[in-house]
Write a structure and sequence with these properties.
The chain is α+β, with helices and mostly antiparallel strands. The chain is about 25% helix and about 35% strand.
Length: about 200
């Protein structure tokens, strides 16, 4: 795939519209990891309006493409992601939370019809307590997922499935209510380029 082909590939990602609580913004992609790269950030809100709106998760999604592939990828493409979400402090104490987070990621990709190999990553639990002048704050708990996988792509449009699955995972760890089967979600506008 040449630069023109990768631009068409990236445009298919830009055209994707997630559910309204997820805002995608195109951001500069890392330049030294592969010949071609595309990236965006995501912010997930609680879906409320005005002063009640609050960010409950965020993430970054990067697609790398190296013509001819890289040995460590087992393919020509690699999806790399970081996701952070607030979780209930009681949930953060569950020793199975990392396994659950990893399963959410894999299940989200599978439910979007994604084929992939060589998935790897880490799931981290983060707990914060405030002291001194900050002691009025409630304790905070977060979950972070850092992951990468090699998408099996026969048609460039298939990368959109991986983006869709990733957005499903974002919604899952953010605690958004699932969209019932047969109901179409109201979607946000397509990706916005960050200026």
């Amino acid at each position: 795939m040449d630069a023109h082909g990768f631009e068409r590939f990236a445009q298919s990602l830009r055209d994707f519209s997630p559910r309204t609580e997820i805002l995608l913004e195109e951001v500069p992609a890392p330049q030294k990891l592969a010949t071609f790269a595309f990236a965006f950030s995501a912010d997930v809100s609680n879906g409320l309006l005005g002063d009640d709106e609050d960010e409950i998760a965020s993430g970054r999604f990067v697609v790398l493409h190296e013509p001819g592939g890289q040995d460590t990828w087992d393919g020509e493409y690699r999806c790399v992601t970081f996701v952070r979400a607030d979780v209930d402090p009681m949930m953060q104490e569950d020793p199975l939370l990392p396994e659950v987070g990893w399963k959410w990621m894999l299940d989200s990709l599978s439910s979007a019809g994604c084929e992939y190999i060589a998935a790897s990553g880490t799931v981290t639990r983060v707990a914060s307590s405030s002291f001194g002048k900050l002691s009025t704050r409630s304790d905070e708990a977060e979950m972070e997922i850092r992951a990468s996988w090699t998408p099996v792509i026969r048609d460039p449009q298939e990368i959109v499935n991986h983006l869709s699955g990733w957005c499903t995972m974002l919604g899952e760890i953010a605690g958004l209510a699932p969209i019932p089967e047969g109901v179409r979600a109201i979607t946000a506008s397509p990706l916005r380029a960050r200026r």
